[in-house]
Amino acid sequence: MSKVRREDVDKLTSMDADYPHDDAVPELPPVPDAVNPPPPPDNWNWSRFNDDIHPQRKPYDPPLTDIVTEEAPLKADVCWSMRSPYSYLSLQRLTWLNSNYNVDISIRVIFPVAVRTRADSGKAGSGRWYKWADTINDTRRMGQYEGIPFRFANPDPIWQNTWPTETADFMVHPLEKQPYITWLTRLGNYAELHEKAIDYVNAVSPLIWGGHVDHWPDHVRDAFNSIDGLDYDEAIQFIRDHPEKVDAVWQHNQTIQLNAGHGGVPLMIFQNEPFFGQDRFDLFYWRLRQSGLTKRKIARAPFTTKPLRWPDG
Length: 313
What we know:
By secondary structure, the protein is of the alpha+beta class. The protein has eleven helices and four strands; from the N terminus they run ααβαβαααααααββα.
Protein backbone atom coordinates (compact mmCIF):
# COMPACT_ATOMS: atom_id res chain seq x y z
CA MET A 1 0.00 0.00 0.00
CA SER A 2 1.24 3.44 -0.88
CA LYS A 3 1.85 5.53 2.23
CA VAL A 4 2.49 9.26 2.04
CA ARG A 5 4.41 10.98 4.80
CA ARG A 6 5.26 14.58 5.47
CA GLU A 7 8.89 14.10 4.52
CA ASP A 8 7.79 12.89 1.06
CA VAL A 9 5.62 15.96 0.50
CA ASP A 10 8.39 18.27 1.73
CA LYS A 11 10.24 17.49 -1.50
CA LEU A 12 7.33 18.72 -3.66
CA THR A 13 7.29 22.50 -3.85
CA SER A 14 5.96 23.14 -7.35
CA MET A 15 2.30 24.06 -7.83
CA ASP A 16 2.39 21.77 -10.87
CA ALA A 17 3.57 18.72 -8.92
CA ASP A 18 1.09 15.94 -8.24
CA TYR A 19 0.46 14.94 -4.64
CA PRO A 20 1.78 11.42 -4.04
CA HIS A 21 -0.96 8.82 -4.30
CA ASP A 22 -2.24 7.26 -1.08
CA ASP A 23 -4.26 4.08 -1.51
CA ALA A 24 -6.31 4.86 1.60
CA VAL A 25 -7.92 7.89 -0.05
CA PRO A 26 -10.84 7.13 -2.43
CA GLU A 27 -11.50 8.94 -5.68
CA LEU A 28 -14.09 11.67 -5.09
CA PRO A 29 -15.72 14.35 -7.26
CA PRO A 30 -14.00 17.77 -7.47
CA VAL A 31 -14.70 20.21 -4.66
CA PRO A 32 -16.01 23.73 -5.34
CA ASP A 33 -13.72 26.59 -4.39
CA ALA A 34 -13.72 27.01 -0.62
CA VAL A 35 -12.31 30.55 -0.52
CA ASN A 36 -14.44 32.65 1.82
CA PRO A 37 -16.75 35.32 0.40
CA PRO A 38 -16.70 38.71 2.14
CA PRO A 39 -18.31 38.62 5.59
CA PRO A 40 -21.73 40.26 5.99
CA PRO A 41 -21.43 43.84 7.27
CA ASP A 42 -23.72 43.09 10.22
CA ASN A 43 -21.68 40.13 11.51
CA TRP A 44 -21.43 39.83 15.27
CA ASN A 45 -17.88 41.12 15.64
CA TRP A 46 -18.22 44.17 13.42
CA SER A 47 -21.67 45.18 14.61
CA ARG A 48 -20.59 44.94 18.29
CA PHE A 49 -17.27 46.69 17.67
CA ASN A 50 -16.67 48.98 20.64
CA ASP A 51 -13.40 50.87 20.95
CA ASP A 52 -14.89 53.70 23.07
CA ILE A 53 -14.34 56.04 20.12
CA HIS A 54 -16.71 54.94 17.36
CA PRO A 55 -20.39 54.28 18.00
CA GLN A 56 -21.32 50.68 18.66
CA ARG A 57 -23.93 49.62 16.10
CA LYS A 58 -25.59 46.86 18.14
CA PRO A 59 -25.64 46.22 21.89
CA TYR A 60 -24.18 43.10 23.40
CA ASP A 61 -26.72 40.33 23.79
CA PRO A 62 -28.10 39.84 27.31
CA PRO A 63 -27.85 36.38 28.89
CA LEU A 64 -30.72 34.04 28.20
CA THR A 65 -33.26 33.71 30.99
CA ASP A 66 -35.11 30.53 30.02
CA ILE A 67 -34.87 27.52 32.31
CA VAL A 68 -32.29 25.13 30.87
CA THR A 69 -33.25 21.46 30.98
CA GLU A 70 -32.50 18.29 29.04
CA GLU A 71 -35.69 18.92 27.08
CA ALA A 72 -34.78 22.59 26.48
CA PRO A 73 -30.96 22.76 26.31
CA LEU A 74 -28.76 25.63 25.24
CA LYS A 75 -27.47 25.48 21.64
CA ALA A 76 -23.92 26.22 20.49
CA ASP A 77 -21.96 25.75 17.27
CA VAL A 78 -18.28 24.90 16.92
CA CYS A 79 -16.60 25.55 13.57
CA TRP A 80 -13.99 22.82 13.22
CA SER A 81 -11.15 21.90 10.88
CA MET A 82 -9.73 18.40 10.61
CA ARG A 83 -6.35 20.02 9.93
CA SER A 84 -6.41 22.13 13.09
CA PRO A 85 -4.40 20.75 16.02
CA TYR A 86 -6.10 23.31 18.24
CA SER A 87 -9.51 21.92 17.28
CA TYR A 88 -8.28 18.51 18.40
CA LEU A 89 -6.91 19.98 21.64
CA SER A 90 -10.40 21.32 22.44
CA LEU A 91 -12.10 17.99 21.73
CA GLN A 92 -12.07 16.47 25.20
CA ARG A 93 -13.54 19.58 26.83
CA LEU A 94 -16.23 20.04 24.19
CA THR A 95 -17.19 16.37 24.39
CA TRP A 96 -17.34 16.42 28.20
CA LEU A 97 -19.49 19.56 28.03
CA ASN A 98 -21.89 18.03 25.51
CA SER A 99 -22.06 14.76 27.41
CA ASN A 100 -22.56 16.06 30.93
CA TYR A 101 -24.32 19.42 30.57
CA ASN A 102 -27.58 20.61 29.03
CA VAL A 103 -26.12 22.15 25.91
CA ASP A 104 -26.16 20.72 22.40
CA ILE A 105 -22.76 21.19 20.78
CA SER A 106 -23.04 21.16 16.98
CA ILE A 107 -19.69 20.50 15.33
CA ARG A 108 -19.50 22.37 12.00
CA VAL A 109 -16.73 20.91 9.84
CA ILE A 110 -15.18 23.42 7.41
CA PHE A 111 -12.02 23.62 5.32
CA PRO A 112 -8.90 24.95 7.06
CA VAL A 113 -8.08 28.62 6.87
CA ALA A 114 -4.98 27.94 4.76
CA VAL A 115 -7.28 26.69 1.99
CA ARG A 116 -10.09 29.21 2.56
CA THR A 117 -7.78 32.24 2.37
CA ARG A 118 -5.53 31.01 -0.42
CA ALA A 119 -4.69 33.82 -2.85
CA ASP A 120 -4.17 33.28 -6.58
CA SER A 121 -0.50 32.64 -5.93
CA GLY A 122 -1.41 29.77 -3.64
CA LYS A 123 0.30 31.45 -0.70
CA ALA A 124 -1.42 31.75 2.66
CA GLY A 125 -0.32 35.37 2.82
CA SER A 126 -0.55 35.99 6.58
CA GLY A 127 2.94 37.48 6.79
CA ARG A 128 3.42 35.84 10.18
CA TRP A 129 6.84 34.30 9.56
CA TYR A 130 6.95 32.84 13.08
CA LYS A 131 3.56 31.14 13.10
CA TRP A 132 4.36 27.69 11.74
CA ALA A 133 7.27 26.90 14.07
CA ASP A 134 5.38 28.43 16.98
CA THR A 135 2.35 26.23 16.25
CA ILE A 136 4.47 23.08 16.09
CA ASN A 137 6.02 23.84 19.48
CA ASP A 138 2.92 25.29 21.14
CA THR A 139 0.59 22.41 20.30
CA ARG A 140 3.00 19.84 21.68
CA ARG A 141 3.36 21.90 24.85
CA MET A 142 -0.41 22.40 25.11
CA GLY A 143 -1.02 18.68 24.81
CA GLN A 144 1.34 18.07 27.72
CA TYR A 145 -0.32 20.81 29.79
CA GLU A 146 -3.83 19.46 29.16
CA GLY A 147 -2.81 15.82 29.58
CA ILE A 148 -3.92 15.05 26.01
CA PRO A 149 -1.94 12.61 23.81
CA PHE A 150 -0.54 14.64 20.92
CA ARG A 151 1.74 14.18 17.94
CA PHE A 152 1.78 16.48 14.93
CA ALA A 153 -0.01 14.94 11.98
CA ASN A 154 1.97 12.79 9.56
CA PRO A 155 0.92 13.02 6.81
CA ASP A 156 -0.30 16.59 7.13
CA PRO A 157 -3.98 16.77 6.12
CA ILE A 158 -3.16 19.57 3.65
CA TRP A 159 -0.33 20.05 1.19
CA GLN A 160 1.46 23.27 2.11
CA ASN A 161 5.12 24.10 1.65
CA THR A 162 6.36 24.41 5.23
CA TRP A 163 9.92 23.05 5.19
CA PRO A 164 12.54 24.19 5.86
CA THR A 165 10.88 26.72 8.14
CA GLU A 166 13.57 29.34 7.59
CA THR A 167 12.93 29.61 3.85
CA ALA A 168 9.49 28.06 3.26
CA ASP A 169 7.04 30.12 1.21
CA PHE A 170 4.01 28.38 2.83
CA MET A 171 2.39 27.99 -0.57
CA VAL A 172 -0.96 26.18 -0.30
CA HIS A 173 -1.81 23.89 -3.16
CA PRO A 174 -5.31 24.08 -4.68
CA LEU A 175 -8.18 21.88 -3.55
CA GLU A 176 -7.87 19.57 -6.53
CA LYS A 177 -4.44 18.67 -5.11
CA GLN A 178 -5.64 18.27 -1.52
CA PRO A 179 -6.82 14.63 -1.31
CA TYR A 180 -6.72 14.29 2.48
CA ILE A 181 -8.60 17.38 3.59
CA THR A 182 -11.32 17.07 0.95
CA TRP A 183 -11.88 13.46 2.02
CA LEU A 184 -11.90 14.24 5.74
CA THR A 185 -14.09 17.33 5.44
CA ARG A 186 -16.70 15.64 3.29
CA LEU A 187 -16.85 12.61 5.61
CA GLY A 188 -17.43 15.06 8.48
CA ASN A 189 -20.17 16.81 6.53
CA TYR A 190 -21.83 13.47 5.77
CA ALA A 191 -21.71 12.72 9.51
CA GLU A 192 -23.37 16.11 10.13
CA LEU A 193 -26.20 15.16 7.81
CA HIS A 194 -26.78 12.20 10.13
CA GLU A 195 -26.33 14.29 13.32
CA LYS A 196 -23.12 12.42 14.13
CA ALA A 197 -20.51 15.16 13.71
CA ILE A 198 -19.32 15.12 17.31
CA ASP A 199 -19.04 11.33 17.10
CA TYR A 200 -17.04 11.70 13.89
CA VAL A 201 -14.44 14.08 15.29
CA ASN A 202 -14.09 11.88 18.37
CA ALA A 203 -13.46 8.85 16.17
CA VAL A 204 -11.16 10.39 13.55
CA SER A 205 -9.34 13.42 15.02
CA PRO A 206 -7.35 11.36 17.57
CA LEU A 207 -6.05 9.23 14.69
CA ILE A 208 -4.58 12.33 13.04
CA TRP A 209 -3.30 14.18 16.10
CA GLY A 210 -3.18 11.72 18.98
CA GLY A 211 -0.25 9.63 17.84
CA HIS A 212 -2.16 6.41 18.49
CA VAL A 213 -1.54 4.84 15.08
CA ASP A 214 1.03 4.87 12.32
CA HIS A 215 -0.08 6.47 9.04
CA TRP A 216 -3.53 7.61 10.15
CA PRO A 217 -5.23 7.46 6.68
CA ASP A 218 -5.14 3.65 6.85
CA HIS A 219 -7.41 3.75 9.92
CA VAL A 220 -10.10 6.24 8.90
CA ARG A 221 -12.43 3.59 7.45
CA ASP A 222 -12.49 1.52 10.66
CA ALA A 223 -12.86 4.63 12.83
CA PHE A 224 -15.78 5.84 10.74
CA ASN A 225 -17.44 2.42 10.90
CA SER A 226 -17.13 2.48 14.69
CA ILE A 227 -19.72 5.29 14.80
CA ASP A 228 -23.16 3.89 15.54
CA GLY A 229 -25.43 4.25 12.53
CA LEU A 230 -22.75 5.18 9.98
CA ASP A 231 -21.17 3.05 7.25
CA TYR A 232 -18.01 4.16 5.46
CA ASP A 233 -18.79 2.61 2.07
CA GLU A 234 -22.29 4.12 2.10
CA ALA A 235 -20.81 7.51 2.97
CA ILE A 236 -18.29 7.41 0.12
CA GLN A 237 -20.96 6.34 -2.34
CA PHE A 238 -23.27 9.13 -1.19
CA ILE A 239 -20.46 11.69 -1.63
CA ARG A 240 -19.84 10.39 -5.15
CA ASP A 241 -23.54 10.40 -6.06
CA HIS A 242 -24.55 13.64 -4.30
CA PRO A 243 -21.47 15.85 -3.88
CA GLU A 244 -23.61 19.00 -4.00
CA LYS A 245 -25.57 17.92 -0.90
CA VAL A 246 -22.40 17.26 1.06
CA ASP A 247 -20.62 20.41 -0.12
CA ALA A 248 -23.68 22.47 0.84
CA VAL A 249 -22.95 21.50 4.46
CA TRP A 250 -19.46 23.01 4.66
CA GLN A 251 -20.64 26.01 2.65
CA HIS A 252 -23.42 26.58 5.19
CA ASN A 253 -20.93 26.13 8.02
CA GLN A 254 -18.68 28.82 6.53
CA THR A 255 -21.68 31.15 6.52
CA ILE A 256 -22.23 30.49 10.23
CA GLN A 257 -18.59 31.35 10.86
CA LEU A 258 -18.73 34.53 8.79
CA ASN A 259 -21.95 35.66 10.48
CA ALA A 260 -20.07 35.47 13.77
CA GLY A 261 -17.44 37.75 12.26
CA HIS A 262 -14.57 35.32 12.35
CA GLY A 263 -12.40 32.99 10.29
CA GLY A 264 -10.46 30.87 12.77
CA VAL A 265 -10.96 27.44 14.33
CA PRO A 266 -11.92 26.06 16.69
CA LEU A 267 -14.60 28.74 16.84
CA MET A 268 -17.18 28.24 19.57
CA ILE A 269 -20.32 30.29 18.86
CA PHE A 270 -23.14 31.00 21.29
CA GLN A 271 -25.91 33.43 20.32
CA ASN A 272 -23.69 34.37 17.35
CA GLU A 273 -20.92 35.48 19.73
CA PRO A 274 -17.53 33.96 18.72
CA PHE A 275 -14.98 32.46 21.09
CA PHE A 276 -11.87 31.70 19.06
CA GLY A 277 -9.34 29.07 20.00
CA GLN A 278 -9.12 26.20 22.45
CA ASP A 279 -7.70 28.66 25.00
CA ARG A 280 -11.06 30.52 24.98
CA PHE A 281 -12.99 27.50 26.18
CA ASP A 282 -13.22 28.80 29.75
CA LEU A 283 -14.75 32.08 28.51
CA PHE A 284 -17.20 30.13 26.36
CA TYR A 285 -18.15 27.98 29.36
CA TRP A 286 -18.54 31.13 31.52
CA ARG A 287 -20.91 32.63 28.95
CA LEU A 288 -23.02 29.45 28.93
CA ARG A 289 -23.16 29.55 32.73
CA GLN A 290 -24.44 33.13 32.53
CA SER A 291 -27.36 31.81 30.49
CA GLY A 292 -28.28 29.15 33.01
CA LEU A 293 -26.22 26.12 31.94
CA THR A 294 -27.14 23.09 34.06
CA LYS A 295 -25.81 19.57 34.41
CA ARG A 296 -27.49 16.56 32.86
CA LYS A 297 -28.86 13.89 35.18
CA ILE A 298 -27.44 11.14 32.99
CA ALA A 299 -24.42 11.59 30.70
CA ARG A 300 -24.91 10.93 26.99
CA ALA A 301 -22.64 9.60 24.25
CA PRO A 302 -20.08 10.20 23.00
CA PHE A 303 -18.33 9.83 26.34
CA THR A 304 -14.90 10.93 27.49
CA THR A 305 -12.98 11.20 30.74
CA LYS A 306 -13.19 14.46 32.66
CA PRO A 307 -10.59 16.94 31.36
CA LEU A 308 -7.55 17.52 33.54
CA ARG A 309 -8.21 21.28 33.68
CA TRP A 310 -11.97 21.74 33.81
CA PRO A 311 -13.14 25.30 34.59
CA ASP A 312 -14.98 24.22 37.76
CA GLY A 313 -11.95 22.31 39.04
